[in-house]
Write a structure and sequence with these properties.
By secondary structure, the protein is α+β, with helices and mostly antiparallel strands. The protein is built from two helices and two strands. It has helices at 54-66, 81-93; strands at residues 7-14, 26-34.
Length: 96
């Protein structure tokens, strides 16, 4: 899950089992959508700046309104009011 829109990048995917002597061992894919950011490990520090401030609330609600997967703070697979509750529970305790 990413908290920002994907960007275009290159992907190098190694094969599980290498082929014969002259067969390729990986596949290169260009112009692949890739995450440009990662979801916060600590929901209380939603913007990942090292502190729990009002900025975290603003960034969380921006993602929540956009339906970003990172706003699924209760990890139930959907973006609902329960995620707002889970975010504020973490925010109020200042912990993760």
């Amino acid at each position: 899950i990413a908290n920002s829109a994907p960007t275009t990048g290159d992907l190098q995917m190694g094969l599980f089992r290498p082929g014969a002597a002259n067969d390729p061992n990986s596949v290169a894919i260009t112009a692949m959508p890739i995450p440009s950011g990662l979801c916060p490990v600590c929901p209380a520090d939603y913007n990942q700046d090292g502190g729990v401030t009002g900025d975290d609330i603003a960034v969380f609600f921006s993602d929540f309104e956009a339906g970003s997967g990172c706003a699924d703070t209760n990890a139930d697979g959907g973006i609902t009011g329960d995620d707002v509750s889970a975010f504020f529970t973490a925010y109020e305790t200042g912990g993760c």
